[in-house]
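Q: How would the structure tokens look for this protein?
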Amino acid sequence: MTHTTVHEAAEKGSYQQKDLLTPYAQDLLQKIRQGIGTNEEKPLAGLKIIVDAGNGAGGFFAEKVLLPLGADTNGSQFLEPDGHFPNHIPNPDNKEAMASIREAVLREQADLGIIFDTDVDRSAVVTKSGEPLNRNNMIAVLSKIILAEHPGTRIVTNSPTSNHLKTFIEALGGQQVRYISGYRNVINKAIELNEAGLDTQLAIETSGHAAFKENFFLDDGAYVIAKLLMMLPQLQQQGTTLDELIAALQQPDETQELRFAIQQADYQDYGRQVIADLADHLVPGWQIDPENEEGIRINLTAPYGQGWFLLRMSLHEPLLVLQIENDEAGHLPAVVQAIGRFLSQYEAIDQSKLTQFLAQQPKI
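A: Here is the predicted structure in token form.
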């Protein structure tokens, strides 16, 4: 070590080891039983619910939460923490991770599969039918739950959510507030709205970060799952499923995300200028969405199908992020080509991902 002076402490320090996980799990058990509305010790008896912790910190949920509630957790996988993550990345927004829990649910004929990220602040599920409830689908399910409890409340999401999600929430009597990406951003916006006297019960991102007002706006993936578990016995009695809760949520025909590296030292200013320039280079079939807080969101009509795209800066990397959603199949290449023509005037924008995507499209 250089330029460092090390001083010995005058007195030796001390530390204590405390078990925080057990009281946390006990608190979840109490809240789940209370949410179900039962004094039964094992209200999830008869349900098979498996956990994929991806060798992160979420393995406790099977042993300390699901088992005491009576659920059969046989078939749970990758519960032991291992920082090398030998099986898959613990990330509910990752296709490989979601495929892993989906395969396990179908193989084990489970009623529900739960997946957590590394430190359990994000989560998602796979239903008995193999349907993933993450991203827009998870926001829809939680919105339906929270709107039944708090009619008319606001739900803050990050900006790249589906137009259909807004329609779904409004049909339930709620209000969606699309805001800047980043879980602290959506949480802080929800807190701000509440302080202004506007009831806002949920802040959630498509990445899986979610925080409830009733849970002190803590970013807690285990509590998200707890809210879903509170519903399961009721759904079982009614003969319905989690899938059916969001049957009214229209699914887009096409989605795509592309990321463009900005090869420039002042990439933030450069990227923002690209986004600002795009507003002056609209083509027929592109209309700026005025209800947008991040980057630029363009609504698409003929000849580009029926949908939208969002171009924004990455939160943490020197990247422009492009997200596209379309309700008419076959229009993605045309949308991407048009964006590529616009971006071609910027030498610092790496379009290799765009070129690769177009090369993989079928020739017409």
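The first helix runs from residue 21 to 36.

The two ends are 63 Å apart (CA to CA).

Upvote if useful.
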